[in-house]
Amino acid sequence: MSGARSTTPILETKALTRAFGGLVAVDHLDLSVHPGEIVGLLGPNGSGKTTALNLISGLLRPDSGAIRFDGYDIAGAAAYRIARLGIARTFQLVRVLDGMTCLDNVKAGLAFHHPPLPHGEIETRARTLLQRVGLERHVQRAVSQMTYIDRKRLELARALALAPKLLLLDEWLAGLNPSELQTGISLIRSLKDDGLPILLVEHVMDAIRSLCDRCVVMNSGRKIAEGTVHDVLADPAVIEAYLGAPAHA
Amino acid sequence: MIGAPVAIPLALAAVAGLAAVPFVVDAYYLALAISLLQFTVLSTAWGLFSGPTRYISLATAAFFGIGAYTVAVLGELLPWPLVLAIAGIIGVLTAAVVGFSTLRLSGVYFVIFTFGLAELIRQLVVWYEVNKSRVLGRYVFADITQTDIYWQLLALAVVTFVIGWAIARSRLGFALRIIGEDETVAQHCGINTTVAKVALFTVSATIMTIAGAIMAPRWTYIEPSIAFNAMISFQVVIMALLGGAHRLWGPVLGAIPMTLLFEFLSARFPSTFTIIMGVVFLLIVYALPRGVIGLLQRLANRPTKRSEAIS
Fold first, then answer.
1. The whole model's pTM is what?
2. Which one of B171, B182, B191 has the shortest CB-CB distance to A80?
3. Is the ipTM beyond the 0.85 threshold?
4. Is the minimum CB–CB distance between B176 and chain A shorter than 8 Å?
5. What is the DSSP letter of A92?
6. CATH number for the domain whose boundaries are A1-86+167-186+196-249
């Protein structure tokens, strides 16, 4: 996938910074995602990965730095504008609409396109998306009664309903059992095969190895390594971030 | 659910029946009917906004008072329909300004702000009347009978229900349901949540303002403490919660019994009325968290669950 690097990135952050009081959660982060690639955002807990996603999706405003997406400067833009421009996401703690049916959850992602979709098309697309994530049997099911994996699938279907140009996944594969994990990995790979670039925050190593074209590793808000999965996992700085400093006398 | 071919003639018949009420009842029952309609309109309008968004607004008295005071100031200067229209416009403007400045707040901050709003507007009116117009308290001169008030309120109630029905079927209605479920998700679905909330808040507040304007001629004398009486805000919240604010028809189911109860209590126990009202409020929140309509739905759902189990 080195060919992808020569194209203009769909997403590019420059010196992206956000502090909470004295804690700099994201510190001058440079990050890029090119068309058609899956980029893994790795790092120990508390290293600022989710904050970085929140800055990109507009849930938080950056203190400084630039975010360019598809030719637009989106740093500090409202979340709904960023969603309309084509960034969809899932959340670390699954967020589905509990009081609604499965179908309405997906329609939530379809009903506010600009320009609006025709009514019939919303219905058809919603059913197609539920089928894509494997929920076609649960169309009218109340979301509050669904299992954890099904809620994750539903959240992904809602994100895809935006017809995004970039997908942000925040530990979407966490908490799945081995067979669910394989299903999940092949689902994400099928999205990539359709040409959807993905930025994913993930801890599951199997998933990272089999999915990511490139990885960026963060620690304490800063980027400490970038490159292929194999290279970054062998990087001494990464090993130190995860396991602590080697015990020199 | 009753289909539209049945529901529309039924609704028209009900409205026609209600319109005939002034011909068959005496002055006392007409006054009671006016109270019932007033609280039906106010609590339904309240539910339009607070039902889907789950924002508890205590601003009813502010908008109701603006309407009433507009009539007190302009009632004898301009023709009545124009007075109502001006009251409506003032309501729209106030609601839009208040909405854009406060709907970024959520939870208890919003509740407190809306409560303060009625007081703020009342104090502004008092300040203006004392320092500028030098009258505190005005006589309402408008050639409006009790029967006129009743019919106008009935028309407003019909308009309120039609608006509520239309919104529930619109993209705006869907957007508000999503906002009520999870505002962050709503934003990430591409919904401009501020505009959606302000739009609905404005619709709801404008109806309340017009209701206040229609009700004003019922008093012959108005002063700020009468027009901006905070009690009305609480009564409306209690009624809407008792009925169930998450459905268009819910608040009515609370407004009717509560108006009758308040009428009875304030006649029988005038001095302890507010204490009893507080206790009633507590009981409702504990016993019927989803309101009368939630209770009805629970009862209605029992047989269907059984049939699902069989199939």
1. 0.83
2. B191
3. yes
4. no
5. S
6. 3.40.50.300
